[in-house]
Design brief:
By secondary structure, the protein is an all-alpha fold. It contains 16 helices and two strands. The protein has a two-stranded parallel ribbon.
Length: about 375
C-alpha cells in the first residue's frame, strides 16, 4: 500500500492503523507462517495419491478375479471408500494445497476429482468458493440454500404443504438415509454444470468429456462383467458408500452452528471461527474425514496442506482463547447428534437461528 504524502506546507496525514480484528488475524497468520505450516508438502501428497491409485487398481483386479459373485458388493463398498479419498484429494488440489503453481493444482483437481471420482472441478470450485466466502451466511453459502433439507427457519416457513412441514419437523432422522443419494446428486450436478453452454467455466468441454467418460465407462464395465441385478447392486452400494462418507465428512463442520443473516458483517477471523466446528479424533478420523475435522483451521488457512492442519490446531485454539473467541470442538458422535437435533429443531420450532451461546458474540460485532 502506498504511503500518503501531504501537500507542501501541510502536516503529514497520520499513518493508517489496521482495524484491531484485522491485526489479530494478521498476527495469527504470521505465527502460523513462521512455523512453516503454509509451505507445500508435495511429497506427502504424492505418497497419498500413489496409495489411492494402487488401491483403485487393486480393487479392479479383485473385481476381475471375483467375477459373477455377490462378494463383489464388498469390492463396491471398498470402491466407494477409495473414491471418497480421491474426492478429498481433488478438494485439496482445488484449494491449491498440493503444488505452488495454480495451474498444476487445477489440473491435478480435474484429474483426481473428474477422472477418478467423476466430479467436476469447475462446478465444485465455484460452489465451494462461495461457501468459504460466507460460511453459514443466508443467501451467500450454497450449502444452506433451499433443497431437500431446510437449514434455516425461513426455508421451513416457505413450505406450504402438510408433507413439507411434517418432513421438516423430522428431517434430522432422514439426513443420513438421504446421504446414500448424495453421490448421485453430486454426479448429476457435475454433468449438468459442464453441459451448460452459457457457463464461462474454463475447460468446460474437456471436463464434460472427462466426467462423462468416467461415469459412462464405469456403468458399461459393470453391465458387461456382471448380471444385471448384481451390476445394479454394485452400483448402488458404491454410490451409497461414496455419498455417505462424503456427506458425513462435510456435515459436522457447520450444521448446527449459528446462521449468519445476509446483512450482518463480520471480520474474517470471527466469520470463519464462530460458525465452524472441529471434530476430535486420531489418525483414523483424519483419514476418514479427509482432514475436514480441522474445519476451523481449514477455513482460516484454505491453502494449508492437509497434513499441517493438526499442527496448526493448538496454535489457533490457544490464540482464540487469548482473544475470547469461542472455539468449538466436539467428538465425532456428538457432532452427528448435534446435526440431527438441529435439523429437527429448525422444522419443529423455526427458532431464531441465533438462539445459541454464540448469539451475543455475533451481535457484538455487527456493523
Amino acid at each position: 500500500m502506498a504511503t500518503a504524502v501531504a501537500p507542501p506546507g501541510l502536516p503529514a496525514p497520520p499513518t493508517p492503523t489496521p482495524h484491531p480484528t484485522t491485526a489479530r488475524f494478521s498476527e495469527l497468520l504470521e505465527e502460523v507462517r513462521s512455523r512453516g505450516l503454509l509451505e507445500r508438502r508435495t511429497g506427502w501428497y504424492v505418497l497419498r495419491i500413489a496409495a489411492c491409485v494402487l488401491a483403485f487398481a487393486g480393487l479392479w483386479v479383485a473385481f476381475a478375479l471375483l467375477g459373477d459373485s455377490w462378494w463383489q458388493l464388498g469390492v463396491a463398498a471398498a470402491m466407494g471408500a477409495v473414491l471418497t479419498q480421491f474426492g478429498f484429494l481433488g478438494h485439496d488440489a482445488a484449494h491449491r494445497q498440493i503444488f505452488r503453481s495454480a495451474a498444476a493444482n487445477a489440473w491435478a483437481a480435474r484429474l483426481l476429482a473428474g477422472g477418478f471420482a467423476g466430479l467436476s472441478y469447475g462446478w465444485w470450485r465455484a460452489k465451494h468458493n462461495k461457501h468459504h466466502q460466507g460460511p453459514n451466511q443466508e443467501n451467500v453459502d450454497p450449502d444452506i440454500a433451499p433443497g431437500a433439507l431446510a437449514f434455516t427457519p425461513e426455508i421451513v416457513q416457505r413450505r406450504r404443504t402438510r408433507f413439507g412441514r411434517w418432513f421438516a419437523a423430522h428431517q434430522g432422522w432422514f439426513f443420513f438415509p438421504l446421504l446414500t443419494l448424495e453421490g448421485l446428486n453430486l454426479h448429476y450436478a457435475s454433468v449438468r454444470t459442464t453441459m451448460d453452454r452459457a457457463s464461462t467455466q474454463p475447460w468446460r468441454r474437456l471436463e464434460l468429456a472427462l466426467v462423462s467418460a468416467r461415469l459412462i465407462g464405469y456403468v458399461v464395465v459393470l453391465l458387461a462383467a456382471l448380471p444385471l441385478g448384481m451390476a445394479v447392486a454394485f452400483f448402488a452400494v458404491q454410490m451409497a458408500v461414496f455419498g455417505v462418507m462424503l456427506g458425513m465428512s462435510f456435515a459436522p463442520n457447520h450444521k448446527g452452528m449459528p446462521i449468519v443473516p445476509e446483512a450482518m458483517r463480520l471480520d474474517f477471523l470471527r466469520r470463519q471461527v464462530l460458525v465452524s466446528r472441529n471434530v476430535r479424533g486420531g489418525p483414523l478420523v483424519d483419514v476418514m474425514m479427509g482432514g475436514l475435522n480441522y474445519q476451523v483451521e481449514h477455513h482460516l488457512f484454505p491453502s494449508m496442506p492437509r497434513g499441517n492442519l493438526r499442527k496448526a490446531q493448538p496454535i489457533v485454539r490457544d490464540y482464540c482463547a487469548r482473544h475470547d473467541i469461542p472455539y468449538t470442538e466436539v467428538g465425532l458422535g456428538t457432532s452427528y447428534r448435534i446435526v440431527v437435533e438441529y435439523l429437527n429443531d429448525v422444522g419443529l420450532r423455526a427458532r431464531d437461528p441465533f438462539d445459541c451461546p454464540l448469539a451475543a458474540q455475533l451481535r457484538s460485532v455487527q456493523d
